Amino acid sequence: MTIGFDAKRYFLNRTGLGNYSRDLVRILEQYYPDNTYLKYTPRLDDNDLSKKALIEEKIRLPKSTFNRAFPALWRSFGIASDLLNDGVELFHGLTGEIPRGLKARGIKSVVTIHDLIFLRYPELYKPIDRWIYNKKFQLAVNHADKIIAISEQTKSDIIDYYAIPEHKIEVIYQGCHPAFKVPKSDDEQDKLRLKYNLPKDFLLNVGSIEKRKNVLQIVKAIQDIDIPLLIIGKKTPYLEEINRYIIANKLERKVIIKQGFTIEELSTIYSMASIFIYPSIFEGFGIPIIEALYAGTPVITTNSGVFPEAGGPSSCYVDPSNVDEINLAIKRILGDSQTSARMISQGRHYVQKFNDEKIASELINCYQSLL
User: Fold this and answer.
1) Domains 2-175+355-368 and 178-353 fall in the same CATH topology
2) From 154, 165, 191, 289, which residue has the greatest number of CB atoms within 10 Å?
């Protein structure tokens, strides 16, 4: 098969959607190398990934002067002709979008929908953003030959909000970077601790620092906890609210906020943490939970939505709005080594359902069902 991918975020996004895109293509190339995988992107950035891509033959950029001048139009319209000329049999929109004109050219299409948070929690988005997302997603789910939902939660939302028939949607989970699956030595951990001046013991939260992620609730919950909280994520306006609370409550020594780690460093930090805490209000899946389970770190997360689907039976579930509940969960795990060890062992067993080979097989079966 010759498969084309919308690789904009593969190259231009270093976190969530970019990680999903890179991991999906990686495992397909690893387990099904006989297929041809072409990556279509409107541009490349000046980073190591893009520099490496320039020497590969499987990268596709806009060719004409017009398409280079208007890359957004190329990605939505002009790309279809390029796909046909390249002999692409199936196109996979990895981040909720597919171009127009595929059916007319006989090219099958698959689209991944990660979440519909903008419909569930419209107050978190600007009206213009909601309108744009809705138009793009409506086009994608109605015109794609197959929809991949990254969780049962997202599948349910697609059916509820867009009235798409269930048989058109397939749940294929997201994997995670192999770095999280490799045990870390004491020496690796010590070097990283020294490099970034990290404490010996700490609680951990990883993700974009935005209101929906509910990080302030963790900060409120650790006031009488003996070990500090390490927050890793891109700074946003919501961080200002968190910082005001930290200063007002004299928690400067108990909360550490950092960003800019490599994926290898991040995987080591996960393995060093005493507990990973993720009381998000809503997610399409929650890949940080999977990363923590692979790294062998106990997880505290939200007791509803997709979180039990990602965290499995061994994680600890709390009401994300209840600070006391989060506080008691932290104390229970820190104070009981047997509970912590059980959560780590059972978590590592559960997370194998998200292994690369299984995901790659499900993706290929999905593609082949259309050809």
Assistant:
1) yes
2) 289
Phi, psi of 78 (to 5 degrees): -65, -25
User: What confidence tens digit (pLDDT) does each residue in 140-178 have?
Assistant: 999 999 999 999 999 999 999 999 999 999 999 998 899
Question: Cα separation of 81 and 264, whole Å?
Answer: 39
- Architecture per CATH, 178-353: 3-Layer(aba) Sandwich (3.40)
| Whether the Cβ atoms of residue 229 and residue 254 lie closer than 8 Å to each other | yes
**Domains of the chain by residue range:** 2-175+355-368, 178-353
Of 35, 77, 39, 76, the closest CA to residue 57 belongs to 39
Closest CA to 45 of 81, 79, 18, 85: 18
CATH 3.40.50.2000 is right for the domain spanning 2-175+355-368? yes
* DSSP state letter for 213: G
DSSP 150-211: SSHHHHHHHHHHH---GGGEEE------GGGGSPPPHHHHHHHHHHHT--SS-EEEES---G
Q: How far apart are CA 24 and CA 8, in angstroms?
A: 14
Phi, psi of 87 (to 5 degrees): 75, 25
Select from 291, 22, 286, 269 the least CA-distant residue to 180.
Answer: 291
